[in-house]
C-alpha cells in the first residue's frame, strides 16, 4: 500500500509537469447575508468534467488553461451563480456570495452539482441544521445526535438515549469533534439529550467507513460538528421556550466585515419548577446547561482567526436536613449526595493562504471531561460536631496542536497532508475521604488507579486523484505513535483507499478499505450513557484497539437528480477490544487494568440502503440496515462467539417533512428495530449435598442469547411560522411515540406468589406531547 501511494504521488507530479500551462482560479464562498463561509459548495466549468468543492473553511481552487469559461457555483438552499471568467496569463482570485433561495417551495431544475453518485467518499452523510430542525422534537428539544440515529448503519442504544453505535462498534469508537475538538461525553440528562445546541451549529457530517487518511484515533465513525461563525454584517438572534428548557443565541459584528461573535446558551429548569413541591427540609434538583461561544476575525483575504469555546454541565443532587427531638439533646444535621459531570472544550484556529494553491489551518485545542459522585453527612449536638464525606471522580484532559495543509496540484490531484500532537492526562479513579470530629480528623486523596500521561502523535498524507472522466481515487497513509509514562509505546501505519467508477452520469460503483487504530477506551457497565463510564488509556498491559473495514456500494441519481439512492455492504473485524470482567464496575477498589478483559475480538457485517430526497415541498429519507455484530472474549461465554449487546438484525427509519406553505410544515419519523440482546435465567436446577440439604441454582442463557421485543415508534411535529415586524416566530407541537407503543427499556426477572418466575418488561415513555415557542430576530 505504501508503494502504491508513492507511485501515485510520483505520477501526479509527473502529470503536473507534462500538463499544459494553466492558471489558478481560487477564492472563498460565503453566505451573502452573514458572510459565513459555506462548506461543500460545488464549483464546476459548464459543459466539462472540471470541478471542485469548498473545504471546511469555504475555500476552493481550480486550475484552468487560458480561455473563456462559464463557472457554475451551486449549493442546495441557495441561488446558483453563473459567472463568465476569462483566463489570460495570470491567476484569478474570485470570491462568491450566495443568496438564500426563498423560492424553495417550488420544484426547481437541479443543476449538475456534485451529487453523491459522483463523490469518491463512501459511507458519508451530511445533514444541514435546517434538515435536523424539521425532525420532530423530543420534549420540544431538537437534537443532533437523535437525528444521526435515523441514518442507516447507525443504531441508538436504549429507549430515549442519545448514544449511537455505528456498524457494530462501541460508543467509544465514535470520534465526536466540535470545531475539531474531541468531545468525550455527548450526553445530557443521563443520555436523553445530547450536548449540542442546534441553534449554535452550522454543519454536521458523519463518516462511517472509507476513512480518508486525515482521520484517526477511532474505529467506527467520525462525527464532525461545526459551530456557526457569527454574522459579520448584522445583529441577529434566535431562541426558544420549551417545557423543560429554554435557549437563546445572539450573533453579530464587533467590527463590521472584520470581526464577529456568536454566543448561545441553554438551560433546563426542572429544578426550579419542582422546588415548590419539595417538602420542607429537603432539597432535590437536577439541571443541565451549556454555553457555546465563538469569535471570528478577518485579518486579510489570506488570514483568518477563529476562537471557539464550549462548556456544559449536568448537576444532580439531594439534600435532607433533620433535627432531633429536644428530649434527646436537640442535635441537628443533614445528609447530602450528588452527581455531576461536564465537558470543557476550546479551539484556536488560524487559516492562512500561502498561495492560491496552498491552504493551511493551524489549530490549538483543549478538551476536558470530568465526572464526580459523592455524599456528605453532618451532625452537631451541642459542642460535638461530626462530618464525614466521600467523593469519587474521574477525568480525561487533552491539550493538542494540529496542522493541516491542502494543495491543489492540478484538477486531477488534490493533496492533503498534516500532523497532530495531543497530550492526554487520564485519572480513571480518584477517591477523596473526609472525616472530622470536633475540628480534628483526616482528609485524604487516594488514586485507585494510577494517573496516566500519554503523548499521541500522527502524520498523514492523502491524494484525491481523478483518472479521466470515469475513475476517481482517494488514497493515503496515516502513521500514528503513542507513548505513555509507563513506557508503553505503540505505532502503526494505516493505509486508506477509496475508489469510484462512473458507469454513466447517474450510476457509480464504489469500494474502500481502511485500517484504523484506537488508543483510548471507554469502560462501561450500561448502554444508557451514564456519566460513570470511565475513559482509560492504552498501557503496557492494554493494547490499542485495531479494526479493518472493507466496503463496496453503488450510488444512483434518479429523476433528474431530485432523488438519490445508495446501497453499501461492509465487513469489519476488530481486535484488542476491552470490557469489564463479570461483576466489575467503576467503583472497584483496585486498578482498572485488573478489572477488564483485553483479548476481545469483534466481527460486524451488513447491508445499508438509503433513499433520499433533498429538494421540493416534500423532503427526507428512508433508510434500512441489515446487520450482524458479534464479539468473543477468552473468559466470557466459555470463549465462544456471542451477539454484541446492540446486535440488531433489522433497522428501518423513515424521515419525512412536507411544507404546505411558507407558514405550515409537518415532520414525521417512524423507526423500527429488532430488539436488543440480553442474558437471563432460562431454567432452574437443584443440587443436594451429602447432608440432604438442597440448593436451587439458575441456568442462564448463552451470553446475549435472548432478545427483547422489537422496537418501533412514530413521532410527529407540526410547525406554524408567523412573520413579525421584528423577525419570525414559530409554534411547534410535537408528539413523541404517537401511538404509545410500550417499548422495552429493560427486562427483569420476577417471581409471583405462586412461585412462577417470569421476565417482566419496564417501558419508559408512553405518548408524550410537547409545545415550544421559537423566535428569530
From TrEMBL:
Listed GO cellular component terms? cell outer membrane
Q: Residues in domain TonB-dependent receptor plug?
A: 135-218
Q: What is an annotated GO biological process for this record, any one? A: siderophore transmembrane transport
Q: Mind telling me which InterPro entries this protein's record contains?
A: Beta-barrel_TonB, Beta-barrel_TonB_sf, CarboxyPept-like_regulatory, Plug_dom, Plug_dom_sf, TonB-dep_rcpt-like
> Which is an annotated GO molecular function term of this record?
siderophore uptake transmembrane transporter activity
Q: Where in the cell is it found?
A: Cell outer membrane
Give UniProt keywords alphabetically. Answer: Cell outer membrane, Membrane, Receptor, Signal, TonB box, Transmembrane, Transmembrane beta strand, Transport
Residues of the signal sequence? 1-19
Designated name of the protein = TonB-dependent receptor
Instruction: Give the organism the record lists.
Output: Croceimicrobium hydrocarbonivorans
Amino acid at each position: 500500500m505504501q508503494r502504491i501511494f508513492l507511485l501515485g504521488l510520483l505520477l501526479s507530479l509527473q502529470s503536473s509537469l507534462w500538463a499544459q500551462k494553466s492558471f489558478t482560479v481560487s477564492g472563498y464562498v460565503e453566505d451573502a447575508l452573514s458572510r459565513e463561509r459555506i462548506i461543500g459548495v460545488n464549483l464546476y466549468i459548464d459543459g466539462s468534467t472540471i470541478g471542485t468543492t469548498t473545504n471546511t473553511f469555504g475555500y476552493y481552487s481550480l486550475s484552468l488553461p487560458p480561455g473563456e469559461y462559464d463557472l457554475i457555483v451551486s449549493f442546495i438552499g441557495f441561488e446558483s451563480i453563473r459567472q463568465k471568467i476569462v483566463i489570460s496569463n495570470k491567476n484569478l482570485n474570485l470570491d462568491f456570495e450566495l443568496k438564500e433561495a426563498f423560492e424553495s417551495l417550488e420544484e426547481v431544475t437541479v443543476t449538475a452539482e456534485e451529487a453523491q453518485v459522483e463523490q469518491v467518499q463512501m459511507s458519508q452523510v451530511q445533514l444541514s441544521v435546517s434538515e435536523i430542525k424539521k425532525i420532530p422534537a423530543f420534549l420540544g428539544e431538537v437534537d443532533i445526535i437523535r437525528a444521526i440515529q435515523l441514518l442507516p448503519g447507525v443504531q441508538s442504544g436504549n429507549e430515549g438515549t442519545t448514544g449511537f453505535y455505528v456498524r457494530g462498534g462501541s460508543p467509544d469508537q465514535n470520534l465526536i469533534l466540535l470545531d475539531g475538538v474531541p468531545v468525550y461525553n455527548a450526553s445530557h440528562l443521563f443520555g436523553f439529550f445530547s450536548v449540542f445546541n442546534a441553534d449554535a451549529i452550522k454543519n454536521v457530517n458523519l463518516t462511517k467507513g472509507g476513512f480518508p487518511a486525515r482521520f484517526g484515533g477511532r474505529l467506527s465513525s467520525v462525527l464532525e460538528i461545526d459551530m456557526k461563525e457569527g454574522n459579520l454584517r448584522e445583529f441577529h438572534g434566535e431562541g426558544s421556550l420549551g417545557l423543560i428548557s429554554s435557549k437563546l443565541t445572539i450573533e453579530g459584528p464587533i467590527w463590521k466585515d472584520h470581526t464577529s461573535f456568536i454566543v448561545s446558551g441553554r438551560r433546563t429548569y426542572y429544578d426550579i419548577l419542582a422546588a415548590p413541591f419539595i417538602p420542607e427540609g429537603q432539597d432535590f434538583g437536577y439541571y443541565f446547561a451549556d454555553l457555546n461561544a465563538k469569535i471570528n476575525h478577518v485579518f486579510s483575504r489570506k488570514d483568518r482567526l477563529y476562537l471557539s469555546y464550549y462548556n456544559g454541565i449536568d448537576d444532580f443532587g439531594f439534600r435532607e436536613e433533620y433535627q432531633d427531638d429536644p428530649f434527646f439533646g436537640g442535635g441537628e444535621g443533614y445528609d447530602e449526595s450528588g452527581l455531576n459531570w461536564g465537558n470543557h472544550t476550546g479551539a484556536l484556529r488560524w487559516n492562512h493562504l500561502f498561495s492560491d494553491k496552498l491552504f493551511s489551518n493551524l489549530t490549538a485545542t483543549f478538551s476536558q471531561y470530568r465526572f464526580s459522585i459523592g455524599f456528605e453527612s453532618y451532625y452537631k449536638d451541642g459542642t460535638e460536631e461530626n462530618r464525614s464525606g466521600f467523593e469519587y471522580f474521574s477525568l480525561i484532559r487533552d491539550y493538542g496542536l494540529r496542522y493541516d495543509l491542502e494543495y491543489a496540484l492540478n484538477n486531477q490531484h488534490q493533496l492533503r497532508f498534516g500532523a497532530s500532537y495531543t497530550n492526554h492526562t487520564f485519572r480513571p479513579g480518584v477517591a477523596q475521604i473526609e472525616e472530622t470530629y470536633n475540628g480534628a480528623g483526616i482528609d485524604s486523596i487516594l488514586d485507585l488507579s494510577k494517573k496516566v500521561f500519554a503523548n499521541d502523535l500522527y502524520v498523514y498524507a492523502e491524494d484525491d486523484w481523478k483518472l479521466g472522466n470515469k475513475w476517481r481515487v482517494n488514497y493515503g497513509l496515516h502513521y500514528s505513535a503513542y507513548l505513555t509514562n509507563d513506557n508503553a509505546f505503540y505505532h502503526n501505519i494505516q493505509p486508506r483507499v477509496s475508489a469510484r467508477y462512473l458507469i454513466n452520469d447517474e450510476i457509480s460503483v464504489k469500494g474502500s478499505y481502511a485500517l484504523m487504530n484506537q488508543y483510548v477506551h471507554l469502560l462501561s457497565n450500561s448502554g444508557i450513557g451514564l456519566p460513570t463510564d470511565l475513559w482509560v488509556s492504552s498501557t503496557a498491559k492494554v493494547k490499542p484497539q485495531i479494526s479493518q473495514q472493507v466496503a463496496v456500494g453503488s450510488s444512483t441519481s434518479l429523476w433528474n437528480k431530485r432523488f438519490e439512492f445508495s446501497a453499501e455492504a461492509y465487513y469489519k473485524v476488530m481486535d484488542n477490544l476491552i470490557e469489564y470482567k463479570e461483576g466489575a464496575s467503576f467503583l472497584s477498589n483496585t486498578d482498572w487494568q485488573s478489572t477488564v478483559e483485553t483479548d476481545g475480538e469483534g466481527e460486524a457485517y451488513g447491508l445499508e440502503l438509503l433513499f433520499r430526497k433533498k429538494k421540493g415541498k416534500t423532503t427526507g429519507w428512508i433508510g434500512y440496515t441489515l446487520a450482524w455484530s458479534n464479539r468473543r472474549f477468552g473468559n466470557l461465554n466459555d470463549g465462544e462467539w456471542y451477539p454484541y449487546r446492540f446486535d440488531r438484525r433489522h433497522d428501518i427509519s423513515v424521515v419525512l417533512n412536507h411544507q404546505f406553505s411558507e407558514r405550515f410544515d409537518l415532520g414525521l419519523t417512524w423507526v423500527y428495530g429488532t430488539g436488543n440482546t440480553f442474558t437471563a435465567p432460562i431454567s432452574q436446577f437443584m443440587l443436594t449435598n451429602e447432608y440432604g440439604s438442597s440448593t436451587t441454582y439458575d441456568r442462564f442463557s448463552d451470553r446475549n442469547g435472548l432478545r427483547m421485543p422489537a422496537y418501533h415508534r412514530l413521532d410527529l411535529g407540526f410547525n406554524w411560522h408567523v412573520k413579525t415586524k421584528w423577525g419570525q416566530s414559530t409554534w411547534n407541537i410535537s408528539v413523541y411515540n404517537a401511538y404509545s407503543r410500550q417499548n422495552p427499556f429493560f427486562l427483569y426477572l420476577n417471581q409471583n406468589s405462586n412461585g412462577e418466575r417470569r421476565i417482566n418488561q419496564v417501558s419508559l415513555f408512553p405518548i408524550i406531547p410537547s409545545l415550544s415557542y421559537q423566535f428569530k430576530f
